[in-house]
Fold:
Amino acid sequence: MIAEDSVLLREGLVGLLERFGHTVPAAVGDGPSLVGAVVEHGPDVVIADVRMPPGFTDEGLRAVRELQRLRPTPAVVVLSQYIEQTFAEELLAGRSGAGTGYLLKDRVGDVAEFMASVGRVADGGTVVDPEVVRQLLTRRRDPLNRLTPRERQVLALMAEGRSNAAVARALVVSEAAVAKHIASILQKLDLPPAPDDHRRVRAVLAYLGA
Structure:
């Protein structure tokens, strides 16, 4: 099953897969149509773009999350024009025993490599583009990359020496929300409570060091 909004790439994938002996019961151009087609046809492997109509944000990924809740769960190969680190992490975190792949669209140009990747995913394996792996490893080495944009804002204001009340006023949120963000920041930066450490100061130092 294929979900790709580009007609040329979609038809090209259909022709390529059929040339290698596979059957493609349906090829669609958006996420909701993909879910319906999978339920109807029950394919072994789904190849889906990350960004599809109507919003061209994460429609493909959201459709894949729905597919990962189906039983039996089809193997999934996600194609992306660019490296979407957050999307890749969500896809891999949601694995439910079925094969999973995250490939850049450039890899489709290497027919042998692409078909080998589809085969490994169909057999239950995991295939991730080497460049995606490199960036994911780099991201994980920097704990600040674990923070959400809002948590980064809170930490930046903390680095300016602002109190929780001042941070709340600057971001137009409640102090309770600020305290919740700070607790999350400390957890993500691996700063557990310790009698000899001021965790807030250590969090700020980590921010300034980065």
